[in-house]
Amino acid sequence: MVSALSHIREIERVAMGRPSNRDRPVIQSWLRCLNDYQLNPARPQEAYIVPATQLREHREQSEELIRIGRTGLEGLFRQVADQNYVLLLSDARGVTVEFMGDPTFDNQLRKAGLYLGSEWSEDRAGTCAVGACIVSEKPVIIHQDDHFDACHIGLTCTAAPIFDTFGDLSAVLDISQLRSPTEKASQQLALHLVASTARRIELANLMTRAREDWVLRLARLPDFLDVDPDAAITIDGNGMITGMTHGGFGAVARSMNQNTVPTRDFIGKPVSDIFDIDIDQLPALMRGRPNGERMVRARNGLALFASAIAPVSSFRTPSTIIPARLPAALRHLSFGDPAMEALQARAAKLADRNLPILIRGETGSGKEYLARAIHDSSARSGPFVAVNCAAIPEQLIESELFGYAPGAFTGAMQKGKMGLIEAANGGTLFLDEIGDMPLALQSRLLRVLSENEVQPVGALRPKPVRFRLLSASHRDLAAMAAEGRFREDLLYRLNAATLTIPPLRQRRDFDGLVDHLLRRHGEEEGETITIDLAARRALARHDWPGNLRELDNTLRVAAAMATDAAITAECLPEHFQAEALPGGGQVDNEALRRQLGECGNNVSELARRLGVNRSTIHRRLKRLH
Ligand SMILES: Nc1ncnc2c1ncn2[C@@H]1O[C@H](COP(=O)(O)OP(=O)(O)OP(=O)(O)O)[C@@H](O)[C@H]1O
Prior knowledge:
By secondary structure, the chain is of the alpha+beta class. 39% of the residues lie in helices and 16% in strands. It has a five-stranded antiparallel sheet, with helices on both faces. Strands 10-9-8-12-11 form a five-stranded antiparallel sheet.
């Protein structure tokens, strides 16, 4: 790495107009730092973290995008976490509103500004990937001493812009490393990953906002048209353009022989002004026809492969049911179930308090999902750390939770290890299945809660910690306490408030949940998944012992089995077919015979009516005879 002094000298040479080998975007940004923002390279400044109240405002404004983009962000982070990258999502003002990183390096990351709340606008931080991306609105790599400020010359950062459906910059996605031993060119793959994730988030955002409109996806090659199109445009029932992805504006600009990307000008224009189609021709561009046959031609002759998705008008938007006052993270937990709505309202009131909450509910009912939503709705800048006490072997829970000092025991890491309690400092610790925590550790946890200090195994001194505790259990902790298997005093500490999630079979918003989960899968896959009435009926008849997790998995499998993303009863697992027969799994001979007669002995018709596979009917009939 170059010294700070030689770095400053290089910037001074550039300021005097001397030639430089740096990339053009870097030189342009350095000149902006010197001339426009009057930054002094000889006065380095550490990264700036905005105060918690300000961070909360920034996060609230980005909440919707974070929710829509979460799957994409987590997918990207999973791909790069092994190489010690962290992921930052900043808003259009450069404030980091979402962060993913390895908590082991928390202190270093926070100091380097790779953290929630850090501000990376160019006028404050000097040349940096987020700042340069905000100004240029283009993907960019700022590698080591490309940074203007000598404080940041160890970092390597790669960022891509995310635009809203009107073409305005709404966020910047960045992945960064504290140190990179390699050349700048090695970050090209990072650039590709970040840019394609940004494109997918834009598409998911467009699809979410365009529930009443047609979506037209466009690509120069047919191969990725349905999963990763170059461009997407939304069109209302009158054939007017209502929104586009950034690629959409590019495609429209090219088809009008323009170089710059005009944005809002195109909103409200008839699609037929730009392409040789109008609203009536969109159904012919839906999936189910060979890709080669689905093309549109721009008015300048440019041909593009096209795929249209019909409006999903039957979907009930949550905001019509749940008051908009709820923080966005809590708004999408239910879709018209009175018990859940009451729970959401209580959770919203509790979100910002420092009270511990015990979340109760059957397995898979959404306890962790709720805990994360509470964390996301709070002003906490620290991370959300979830620990499943039942999943960690008993002998490891102590060191995982409390961490250990260097050389604490044989086999321990030399440097020691930060525990998960400390990792949650400033944020939320979610202890799932807390009923599985051994009694001895319950006592230690109690001490942490009363003294706000954690003592790693083998450490001489405790460390101060502040976190919000959320916990969950599907067990009856009060009964366990009565039997002496759970500390009563800890139980009092945990449940200043209790939130109980109803099991899925008792919820009255089953259809809304199905739509919501399908929409989520659709956004991940970049398509609209539909489900017919017979399949819905078959699902509604099931008891769902595995609750939302079981429903979510069932829908994922059904979507994978579906042709053209349209789920029918045949796409559901076998046991749903049996349950769908009259009398449940029991063959009610008379009912089956009667219904077959009503269908004119047509097995296909009966199968359709009952929402089961034809083979299921044949099997039952065979037994009957
Ligand atoms: N309100 C919701 N909307 C959409 N998906 C949800 C919701 N609640 C839960 N899920 C999904 O259901 C699955 C199970 O949720 P979660 O892990 O939160 O359940 P849990 O009660 O904590 O489970 P366990 O008892 O096994 O720890 C996850 O895939 C989650 O994404």
